[in-house]
Amino acid sequence: MDTNDEQRIDTTIEELKKQADEYLNGWKRAKADLVNFQNDTAKERIGWAKFATAGSLMRLLPALDTLYAAHEHFPELAETVKKFEEYLRGEDMTEIGCQEKYDPLLHEVIGMEKVEGAEHGTIIKVAQRGYRLHDQVLRPAKVIVAE
Protein backbone atom coordinates (compact mmCIF):
# COMPACT_ATOMS: atom_id res chain seq x y z
CA MET A 1 0.00 0.00 0.00
CA ASP A 2 1.26 3.42 -0.82
CA THR A 3 1.10 6.52 1.33
CA ASN A 4 -1.95 7.93 -0.50
CA ASP A 5 -3.94 4.80 0.29
CA GLU A 6 -2.88 4.92 3.94
CA GLN A 7 -3.87 8.61 4.18
CA ARG A 8 -7.25 7.88 2.59
CA ILE A 9 -7.80 5.01 4.99
CA ASP A 10 -6.78 7.19 7.98
CA THR A 11 -9.09 9.98 6.77
CA THR A 12 -11.94 7.54 6.30
CA ILE A 13 -11.35 6.08 9.78
CA GLU A 14 -11.36 9.58 11.30
CA GLU A 15 -14.58 10.49 9.48
CA LEU A 16 -16.19 7.26 10.58
CA LYS A 17 -15.09 7.89 14.19
CA LYS A 18 -16.61 11.39 14.06
CA GLN A 19 -19.80 10.01 12.59
CA ALA A 20 -19.92 7.27 15.25
CA ASP A 21 -19.39 9.89 17.99
CA GLU A 22 -22.24 12.00 16.53
CA TYR A 23 -24.52 8.97 16.48
CA LEU A 24 -23.51 8.04 20.03
CA ASN A 25 -24.10 11.59 21.32
CA GLY A 26 -27.45 11.73 19.54
CA TRP A 27 -28.43 8.41 21.07
CA LYS A 28 -27.37 9.63 24.54
CA ARG A 29 -29.47 12.80 24.13
CA ALA A 30 -32.46 10.80 22.93
CA LYS A 31 -32.08 8.42 25.87
CA ALA A 32 -31.87 11.35 28.33
CA ASP A 33 -34.94 12.92 26.71
CA LEU A 34 -36.84 9.64 27.07
CA VAL A 35 -35.87 9.31 30.75
CA ASN A 36 -36.94 12.93 31.40
CA PHE A 37 -40.22 12.35 29.59
CA GLN A 38 -40.89 9.19 31.61
CA ASN A 39 -40.11 11.01 34.88
CA ASP A 40 -42.35 13.96 33.95
CA THR A 41 -45.16 11.62 32.95
CA ALA A 42 -44.86 9.69 36.22
CA LYS A 43 -45.01 12.95 38.22
CA GLU A 44 -48.09 14.06 36.26
CA ARG A 45 -49.79 10.73 36.88
CA ILE A 46 -49.12 11.03 40.62
CA GLY A 47 -50.52 14.57 40.57
CA TRP A 48 -53.64 13.46 38.74
CA ALA A 49 -54.17 10.60 41.16
CA LYS A 50 -53.72 12.89 44.17
CA PHE A 51 -56.39 15.30 43.02
CA ALA A 52 -58.76 12.89 41.27
CA THR A 53 -60.92 12.92 44.39
CA ALA A 54 -61.04 16.74 44.67
CA GLY A 55 -64.32 17.07 42.76
CA SER A 56 -66.05 14.39 44.80
CA LEU A 57 -64.80 15.84 48.06
CA MET A 58 -65.97 19.33 47.05
CA ARG A 59 -69.46 17.94 46.49
CA LEU A 60 -69.37 16.35 49.98
CA LEU A 61 -68.50 19.59 51.78
CA PRO A 62 -72.08 20.93 52.00
CA ALA A 63 -73.15 17.61 53.56
CA LEU A 64 -70.23 17.86 55.99
CA ASP A 65 -71.27 21.42 56.91
CA THR A 66 -74.79 20.17 57.58
CA LEU A 67 -73.45 17.27 59.66
CA TYR A 68 -71.40 19.64 61.85
CA ALA A 69 -74.44 21.92 62.29
CA ALA A 70 -76.61 18.95 63.25
CA HIS A 71 -73.92 17.70 65.67
CA GLU A 72 -74.14 20.98 67.60
CA HIS A 73 -77.79 20.19 68.36
CA PHE A 74 -77.54 16.40 68.50
CA PRO A 75 -74.41 15.27 70.35
CA GLU A 76 -75.27 11.62 69.59
CA LEU A 77 -73.94 12.26 66.06
CA ALA A 78 -70.40 12.39 67.47
CA GLU A 79 -69.52 8.90 66.21
CA THR A 80 -70.77 9.72 62.71
CA VAL A 81 -68.74 12.95 62.66
CA LYS A 82 -65.67 11.04 63.86
CA LYS A 83 -66.00 8.44 61.08
CA PHE A 84 -66.50 11.14 58.47
CA GLU A 85 -63.37 12.96 59.72
CA GLU A 86 -61.37 9.70 59.62
CA TYR A 87 -62.44 9.18 56.01
CA LEU A 88 -61.37 12.71 55.07
CA ARG A 89 -57.99 12.28 56.80
CA GLY A 90 -57.53 9.08 54.80
CA GLU A 91 -58.00 11.18 51.64
CA ASP A 92 -55.37 13.62 53.04
CA MET A 93 -57.96 16.33 53.53
CA THR A 94 -57.47 18.54 56.57
CA GLU A 95 -59.35 21.42 58.09
CA ILE A 96 -57.81 24.88 57.79
CA GLY A 97 -56.97 26.28 61.19
CA CYS A 98 -58.62 29.53 62.21
CA GLN A 99 -56.92 30.19 65.54
CA GLU A 100 -54.29 32.47 64.04
CA LYS A 101 -54.44 35.79 62.22
CA TYR A 102 -56.22 36.14 58.93
CA ASP A 103 -54.25 34.69 56.01
CA PRO A 104 -55.58 35.60 52.54
CA LEU A 105 -54.30 32.29 51.18
CA LEU A 106 -56.37 30.29 53.65
CA HIS A 107 -59.25 32.50 54.71
CA GLU A 108 -61.99 34.51 53.05
CA VAL A 109 -63.21 37.49 55.09
CA ILE A 110 -66.98 37.79 54.95
CA GLY A 111 -67.32 40.40 57.68
CA MET A 112 -65.58 42.59 60.21
CA GLU A 113 -66.60 43.42 63.78
CA LYS A 114 -65.26 45.69 66.48
CA VAL A 115 -64.12 43.62 69.44
CA GLU A 116 -62.54 45.15 72.54
CA GLY A 117 -58.96 44.00 73.00
CA ALA A 118 -58.81 42.10 69.72
CA GLU A 119 -55.99 42.99 67.35
CA HIS A 120 -56.92 44.07 63.83
CA GLY A 121 -57.11 41.09 61.48
CA THR A 122 -57.59 38.53 64.24
CA ILE A 123 -60.16 35.89 63.39
CA ILE A 124 -63.03 36.15 65.83
CA LYS A 125 -65.56 33.79 64.24
CA VAL A 126 -65.61 31.03 61.64
CA ALA A 127 -68.70 31.15 59.45
CA GLN A 128 -67.74 28.17 57.30
CA ARG A 129 -64.90 25.70 57.75
CA GLY A 130 -62.20 25.58 55.13
CA TYR A 131 -60.25 22.55 53.94
CA ARG A 132 -56.97 21.59 52.31
CA LEU A 133 -56.37 18.60 50.10
CA HIS A 134 -52.72 17.51 49.99
CA ASP A 135 -51.63 20.93 51.30
CA GLN A 136 -53.57 22.83 48.62
CA VAL A 137 -56.62 24.86 49.55
CA LEU A 138 -59.77 23.03 48.50
CA ARG A 139 -62.10 25.60 50.05
CA PRO A 140 -60.96 28.64 52.07
CA ALA A 141 -62.42 29.14 55.52
CA LYS A 142 -65.02 31.94 55.63
CA VAL A 143 -64.26 34.09 58.64
CA ILE A 144 -65.18 37.26 60.47
CA VAL A 145 -62.21 39.31 61.65
CA ALA A 146 -61.65 42.10 64.15
CA GLU A 147 -61.52 45.66 62.78
Overview of this protein structure:
It is a single chain. By secondary structure, the chain is α+β, with helices and mostly antiparallel strands. It folds into two domains: 1-52; 54-146, Roll (Nucleotide Exchange Factor Grpe, Chain A, domain 2). Helix content is 56%, strand content 20%. The protein is built from three helices and six strands, in the order αααββββββ. The radius of gyration is 31 Å and the shape is elongated. The model has no long low-confidence stretch (mean pLDDT 92).
User: What do the pLDDT scores average to?
Assistant: 92
Low-confidence stretches: none
| Relative helix content | 55-70%
Shape: elongated
Q: Give the class from helix and strand content and strand pairing.
A: alpha+beta
Find the CATH superfamily of the largest domain.
Head domain of nucleotide exchange factor GrpE
CATH topology of the largest domain: Nucleotide Exchange Factor Grpe, Chain A, domain 2
The largest sheet, given as strand count, sense and whether it forms a barrel, is:
3 strands, antiparallel
Quickly give the CATH architecture of the largest domain.
Roll
Biggest sheet strand line-up? 1-4-5
Radius of gyration, Cα only, in angstroms?
31 Å
In short:
The chain has 147 residues and is an alpha+beta fold. It contains three helices and six strands, in the order H-H-H-E-E-E-E-E-E.
Furnish the topology, listing elements before pairings.
Blueprint: H1 3-51, H2 54-73, H3 78-90, E1 93-95, E2 107-113, E3 123-128, E4 131-133, E5 136-139, E6 141-146
Parallel strand pairs: 2-6
Antiparallel strand pairs: 1-4, 3-6, 4-5
Helix pairs in contact: 2-3
